[in-house]
Amino acid sequence: MGGVPRFVFRNDKSFKEILEKGFPSTAILCWENDSVLPKIWLAFIFEAVVCEASVTRDDEKTGGNYMMIKLRGGCQLCVQFICETLVVELACEALQAAVTYGQVDMKKKCLAFIEGSTREVVKTRGFHELSDVAMIEILHSDSLMIDEFELIRAVREWAHVNSVVLDKSVPEISKEVVKELRLALLSPEELTSLENDNKKENFIPVERIAETWKFHALKKGSGAPFHLFKRRIGTLSRDHHKYLDLYYK
After folding, report:
1. E strand intervals along 75-232
2. In terms of DSSP H, where are the helices of the chain?
3. Rounded to 5 degrees, what are φ and ψ at 41?
4. pLDDT band at 236, cuts 50/70/90?
């Protein structure tokens, strides 16, 4: 690999500066540890054209990891690399890149990772920076390892963060996303708590909450989509779930 340019990335800024100066057709990309892999790299690999990429651990010159990359063909090897090195802190950033650039296989693998580590993933910065489209991809899943009440709180926090960043109201930010929250999984006590908190921000339309109260009263659904009554893998059992099993098994 003599004569091939070598770039060491320690943060987003160093990566961006190198890209602005112009990237060679063949280069060695080095980073000190997996957590350094910057978001800009996720976008870069789909904009660039990559024909060869090989990853090696513990580079003797940097004390970290490196990839030799040639910019000429497709990006499949980079997709493979990201999927094989997913960590909690970067899972949502990888999912966002997959959704943005239409990488179906990568999206499936990111979702599978997020499903298995949901409680940890929802606490990351990447989760709070997801687009509404990417968030809906997560909420469609029946396999999330998190209870619905905790998931709703995490999505509410996401909406607040994006409300500030995008200078939009919480209801405007959450309009499409909250349609995928499974309110029927909550107990009456939890629904009461959610309703009281909701009065301050209107995070969830009052009509959705009213529909859920109707479910508790009648012990059956009232025309809402089937999947909203289905328990996720991480859903904690509640007494009223026996009615879910009866009508939506």
Report:
1. none
2. 12-21, 39-47, 76-84, 88-100, 104-116, 118-121, 125-128, 132-139, 148-166, 170-174, 188-198, 206-218, 241-248
3. -65, -40
4. very high
Q: Would 107 be classed as within a structural domain?
A: no
Residue 169: left if φ>0, alpha if ψ -120 to 50, beta else—which one? beta
- Reported as a pLDDT band with limits 50, 70 and 90, residue 181 is very high
Residues contacting residue 110 through CB under 8 Å, at least 6 positions apart: 83, 86, 91, 94, 95, 98
* Confidence grade of residue 26 (pLDDT, cut at 50, 70, 90): low
Count the domains in the chain.
1
Tell whether 157 is covered by a domain: no
> Would you say residue 116 lies in a domain?
no
Length of the chain: 249
**Number of Cα atoms under 13 Å in the Cβ half of residue 63:** 2
Tell me the one-letter amino acid at 155: V
Domain that holds residue 50: 1-85
Beta bridge partners of 230: none
Using the 8-state DSSP alphabet, how is residue 235 labeled? P
Domain contains 37: yes
Q: What are phi and psi of 181, to 5 degrees?
A: -80, 135
Residue range 186-195, pLDDT digits in tens: 999 999 999 9
Please write the tens of the pLDDT for every residue from 33-87: 555 454 545 555 555 544 344 444 444 444 444 444 444 334 566 677 778 888 9
